[in-house]
């Protein structure tokens, strides 16, 4: 059995979906589970529809119409006019309309119930199209398989329950229903109570890894719009280098620091079972790509660069001029954990604790609300976090290019630099 994952860029148009169908059709010599993300930038749009996010009723309706027109425009070009998938898509957009118009409860819960429509809609469309062109498949709701707790926006997976449910649901499709192809969703999961959770932004890679682990897959492949694992994002670097082999531990480090090619939690489950992860190009499917596996070092050895834009730096100081000691840190971390804040870098001195995170106005306001009674908060926005692995001073000077370094951390192999954006 193999597990494939296709991201939003690989299914964002009629041509892209047809290309995905060709790739899938060429790999049906053994059972195949295909994990699919929301199409294009759908998740970004759905984030604006979350109850409580500022918008007028007119704006809400316009956003739903925009997403509906986009998806149905593609579906109508791919599907016969009487295909039942079209009716199912209309029903899903009616449900999205109802969900997005509800009164807000908590941001994290509302986030998961709203943005999860992206994956449900994309897989419904794609499964219907594949069946219509003779690529027989079964659509599976991954929320019935991947079980998490109620930690919304970053659900913690119950691997044992998930393993049992994956083998029961997916193996029954393969064996009892004699199917060779499963289409399911990335990013989303479900709780024991039946509510929807998500696995963290861009979490479809992690979904594929969970299923690979639970189903003892022979391999996992992520299909990207790049030729493999590059030493830098081509959006920032003109001359990137493809890394052919990456050790499991190296990939975990790079993903944790923010390498966009894989989600931070992706590698560990497949490392535990020795399942190799291929990163291949959906633009050139026959190209070799990159492999993450049990290697000693990256090949070729070269500096690796990771850039995170739109960063927020918050500096927290006790109002009573006490030290940043264990009791104050405990208070701060309790708030961050409750709000499910992902910290990209942190540093403390005797009187101040600083943290860097992705900018999110709602979370910033919630942090301020919970901490400002005891702490003084100062923050900077519009920053860039640069991580360089296998650095030297010449590389740092070239990358920083004279910009103000606001915060810096170094280890033997890695440096983190928080700088003003260009």
How many helix segments? 13
The CATH topology label of the largest domain is: Carbamate kinase
- Rg is 22 Å
Q: What gap, in angstroms, lies between the N and C termini?
A: 46 Å
The structure class reads alpha/beta
The percent range for helix content is: 25-40%
* Biggest β-sheet description: 8 strands, mixed
- Mean pLDDT score, rounded? 94
Q: What is the CATH class name of the largest domain? A: Alpha Beta
Number of E-state strands:
18
The CATH H-level superfamily of the largest domain is Acetylglutamate kinase-like
Shape: globular
Structure description:
The protein has 422 residues and is an alpha/beta fold. The protein has two domains: 2-217, Acetylglutamate kinase-like (Carbamate kinase); 305-420, VC0802-like, CATH 3.30.2130.10. The chain contains 13 helices and 18 strands. It has helices at residues 14-25, 42-47, 57-78, 84-100, 107-115, 117-132, 159-175, 204-215, 248-257, 267-272, 326-338, 361-371, 393-400, and strands spanning 2-6, 32-36, 138-139, 181-185, 188-190, 196-198, 219-224, 229-230, 242-243, 245-247, 276-281, 290-293, 304-318, 343-348, 353-358, 375-389, 405-410, 414-420. It has an eight-stranded mixed β-sheet, with helices on both faces. It has a six-stranded antiparallel β-sheet with strand order 14-15-13-16-18-17, with no helix packed on it. Strand 1, helix 1 and strand 2 (32-36) form a beta-alpha-beta unit. Helix 7 packs across helix 8. The chain is globular, with a radius of gyration of 22 Å. The mean pLDDT is 94.
């Amino acid at each position: 059995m193999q597990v494939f994952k296709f991201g939003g860029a690989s299914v964002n148009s009629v041509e892209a979906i047809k290309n995905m169908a060709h790739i899938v059709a060429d790999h049906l010599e053994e059972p195949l589970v295909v994990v699919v993300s929301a199409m294009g930038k759908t998740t970004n749009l759905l984030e604006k529809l979350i109850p409580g996010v500022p918008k007028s009723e007119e704006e809400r309706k316009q956003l739903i119409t925009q997403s509906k027109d986009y998806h149905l425009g593609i579906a109508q070009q791919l599907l016969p006019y009487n295909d039942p998938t079209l009716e199912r898509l209309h029903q899903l957009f009616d449900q999205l309309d109802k969900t997005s118009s509800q009164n807000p409860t908590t941001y994290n819960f509302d986030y998961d119930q709203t943005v999860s429509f992206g994956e449900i809609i994309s897989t419904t469309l794609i499964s219907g199209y594949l069946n219509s062109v003779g690529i027989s498949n079964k659509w599976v709701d991954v929320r019935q398989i991947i079980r998490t707790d109620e930690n919304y926006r970053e659900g913690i997976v119950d691997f044992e329950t998930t393993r049992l449910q994956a083998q029961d649901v997916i193996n029954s499709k393969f064996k009892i229903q004699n199917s060779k192809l499963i289409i399911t969703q990335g990013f989303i999961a479900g709780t024991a109570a039946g509510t929807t959770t998500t696995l963290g932004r861009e979490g479809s890679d992690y979904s594929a890894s969970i299923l690979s682990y639970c189903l003892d897959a022979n391999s996992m492949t992520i299909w990207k719009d790049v030729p493999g694992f590059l030493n830098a994002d081509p959006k920032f670097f003109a001359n990137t280098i493809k890394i052919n082999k990456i050790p499991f531990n190296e990939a975990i480090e790079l993903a944790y620091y923010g390498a966009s090619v894989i989600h931070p939690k992706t590698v560990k489950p497949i490392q535990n079972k020795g399942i190799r992860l291929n990163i291949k190009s959906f633009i050139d499917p026959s190209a070799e790509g990159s492999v993450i596996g049990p290697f000693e070092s990256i090949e070729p050895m070269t500096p690796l660069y990771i850039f995170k834009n739109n960063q927020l730096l918050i500096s927290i100081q006790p109002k009573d001029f006490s030290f940043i000691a264990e009791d104050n840190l405990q208070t701060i971390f309790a708030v961050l954990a409750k709000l499910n804040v992902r910290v990209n870098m942190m540093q403390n001195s005797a009187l101040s604790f600083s943290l860097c995170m992705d900018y999110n106005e709602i979370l910033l306001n919630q942090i301020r609300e919970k901490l400002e009674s005891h702490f003084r908060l100062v923050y900077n926005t519009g920053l860039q976090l640069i991580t360089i692995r296998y650095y030297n001073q010449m590389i740092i000077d070239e990358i920083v290019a004279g910009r103000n370094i606001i915060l810096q951390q170094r280890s033997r192999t890695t440096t983190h630099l928080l700088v003003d954006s260009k």
